Structure formats: C-alpha cells, structure tokens
Amino acid sequence: MTFCRIALLYLLCYAAAGAQQLNDSLSLRLSAIRTKYKLSGISVALIRNNTILAVGSAGLADISRSIPVTDSTLYRIASISKTVAATALMQLYEQGKFRLDDDVSSSMGFSLRNPNYPNDAITFRMVLSHTAGIVDGSGYNGFLSATGSNPVPPISSVLLPNGAYYTSDMWLNRKPGTYFTYTNMGFGVVGTLVERISGERFDQYCIKHLFRPLGLGASFNVSDLLNINNLAVLYRTSAGLWVAQADNYKGVQPAPRDLSGYVIGSNGSLFGPQGNLRISAKDLATFMIARMNGGFANGFRILNDSTAQLMNTPVWTYNGTNGDNYYGLFRCWGLGTHITTNTAKGDIVISGKTMAGHPGEAYGLISDAYYDVNKSGIGIVFLTNGRDGSYVFGASSAFYDVEEAVFAASNDFIKSAATAVLERNNIPASRFALMQNYPNPFNPSTTIECTVPKTGRAIVKIFSVIGEEITTLFDGEVQGGVRYTMEFNASKGATAAGVYLMQLENAGNVQRKKIMLLK
C-alpha cells in the first residue's frame, strides 16, 4: 500500500512538472510577442483534445504597482461576455421557458417593437444574433451612464419612443430579422430577459448556474471578486505614457453597490452582459471547453449537446448587402456566437478551420476566445490589457496584427506540443511502439500512448477501416525514449460506432492498431 501511494504521488508530481514545462514554454513565446507588439500584459490559454493544454503569461497586470500577469490574473474581457450571457439565456430555453421565434415582448413586460416596423415581432433568435435592428444609437451612452447610478432606469426608457433616453437612431430602418448590426444594447435586452424569466439578478444567475458549477472564479460584479489584486488594469497610452482606463482599483476592493431598490428584470444592462465579465484566461478556457464539448466541462453540464450545437449553427450569413460586416470580420453569426468563414483578408483565426467564439475590445483591452466547431478539440483564448500605441490591422485577416501573431503561435504550439507521461516498467520506452489504447472498446474517449527511439517528428492519426482520415491527434516534435499520451474523443460529430485504426508514423516507420468505438 505504501509503495502504491509513493508511485501515485510520483506520477502526479511528474505530470505536474510536465504541465509546468508546457506553461513555461508557452510563456516564453508570449514574452516575445509582448515585446514585439509593445503590450502591457498578455495571457493565453490553449485547448487540445477538449482539455487545457497550456496556460502562459507575460508582462504586467498593474504597471504602477509592478504586479505581473499570472495564471490567476483576471481581465474585464469586453464583448466575449456576450457569449456567456447568451449561454445563460439558452439554459432557460432548454427549460422550455420560451421558443427562439417567440416574441420577446411577452417576457420583457412591454411591447418591444422597431418603430419603423410596428407590426413585426422582435424574437429571441433575432436578439441573440444581432438581427433585431437594435443599435447603439446616440441615446445609448446616456442610458448606460444613468444605469450606473440610482435609481436604475428601466430598459424601456431607451428602447421605447418618448422614453427618457430614447433617440430615433436606437433602431435601424430595416425589417427585423433581415439585417445584421453588431450591438451592445441588444445584449442589455438579453440580460433583462435572463432576469425576467429566471427571477434572479443577472450577475447572481451566472454565478449560480454557470461559474460556480464549473469551478470558475468569475463574475459580472467586480465586488464579488475574491482578490482585487488579481484584476488587470486596462491601459491605453498617451504621449508614450500608460494611462489606466478601467479597473484601476489600486488594491482596494470596491464597496458593493446599494441595489436594495433595484427591481429584478427592469434593466439587465446594470450588470454589463455586453462586456463586464471579469475572468482569467484559464477559467475562460474552461467555459469555452463546455461550449465546444457538448455543454460539459469539469464534471458538470451547463448545456445539452443539442443546445451547444444550436448556438454554433448560423442564423445570419453575410451576402454582401444584408449587414455591417465590421471591416470584414463578421460574416456569420449564430446565437451569441461569432462563426468564422475563412474569407480571405477577413475572419480567419486558423486557416482552414471553422472557429466559433467571440472577440472583444474595450478600454485598451483586446480579447479572443475561439474553438473549432468541427470537433478537433482545439481552442484559443487570448487576453491583453493594453498596447503602447494604436492597434493595427493584420496583413492576412480583419483581426489586428497582434491577434494574428497570437493565433499563429498558438496553432503551432497546439500542433507541436506533446505531453510526456511516466513510462510503464513492463514496456520499454526506447523503441518504436504504438500501445493498445485503453479502454478498448471505448465510449466516448480513449487514451493512446506511443514511444519512438529517437527525437524527431511523430504523427498520430485516426482512420476509418476504409482509409478515410478522421482526425490528426498529434503532429510535431517528440523526444526519443519518452512515452507520450493523447486522448481521442469521439463524443461529438458524425463518428459512428465501429472499428477504427490508430496510426503512428515516425522516421519512415508506420504502425497501426484497431480500436473499437461503442455508442
């Protein structure tokens, strides 16, 4: 028994050391990117096989206090918050509280209509896909400022004619459901719907039903954060000086706002569903794993698989005239989810892969969280709290140059990084070997291990029995004499039950073995 405990402890320490090596290697790459693009701080979390592969960081979270960015650093992630808010609303959809093509008026407590099209309903699907016709008109900033003070104005005051903050440019003169315009105000409606349908404050709903179950230290309410010193200050520069733009609390936890007079469901914009979420790169990656893994992560399900897939299903696709494509970046949209089309000079995260997720930008911060919708199990989370100078568009896409650099480095790291595990005593690690997977048969995932005698490139793939490639599990540099492990997850996609072939290729040698998937 003592020997088993020692062996287990050694294995855990070995695995932790391997993970730290990956984190350190990623951080070195990020340090170079930070220097080249003159960033204050940077955090990246990478996903492979639906698990966090590595988390890296570089630079400063708080320049004036010389606080470095770490795995624990939280950022106000701007518009990525919207996909979290959309997930909250879709949980209520799963409970049968509404249908996507229902008129939101029945839930809002007043008739929500585009004054230019008073007979056309505004539906849940439209609001979630930025096609309702709601825009950030000239009344939006005044309304948002008023929302930050007491008493909190009702959301109707900016959306209905004759409201205190209403302006006619809060609505497009377009038929609802026919034209895409990205909007923050629309997600104030989403937050309000979450409150009115659930009966809970939006910020508290997200903690109870999303963050706490997944084990995330995140909140839409900054006063909920456990350690204010972990929160990154957001910066822009002026005349070469870093100037704080947001979250500059100097180590002092802000007092909770007096919301005793707030009526739940009157104005969900209060908690910033459009951009106020504070979360670390690592925790955001865990949330995105749930979104890409059929709603499941960290032992908890936040969505059914069908709902997770529904959110990644296009509602709007750009045809050249049916929306504002935001400099070519937005060409396809699901439910609170940006979907890439890999259009040249446009929405490319990883060339050739359809990615789903969301970008963000506010107060000097740039943020991205994307995953492959085609079930390869990879994803990228990128956060930076500011750049010295202006952000510049990249050469090959509608993303900024620093985003392109991070995407390229991340994709390379995901493909090339391998995870070493402790070798078994009864199987030498000095030969070319593809070990039998375990468990086998399996459902839905199985572990595959391999070794090669000399350092070099190794490729591990899964094929059908007729030779059709299903997926590449690994393609990169490995060390000789080290056992490597990877996971094949067949829980999503059209992978049917049956026999498949796993293949290891290295230095001209090829080995295959049969594996069996049960469903």
- Quaternary state of this entry equals single chain
Overall structural class, as computed from helix and strand content, comes to alpha+beta
- Which range does the strand content fall in? 15-25%
Main beta sheet strand tally, sense and closure: 7 strands, antiparallel
Q: Please, how many helices?
A: 11
Low-pLDDT ranges: 1-15, 420-428
Radius of gyration: 24 Å
Number of strands: 23
What integer is the average pLDDT?
92
Q: If strands are numbered along the chain, what order do they take across the biggest sheet?
A: 3-2-1-15-14-13-12
Distance between the termini: 37 Å
Q: Into which percent range does the helicity of residues fall?
A: 25-40%
Inertia-based shape: globular
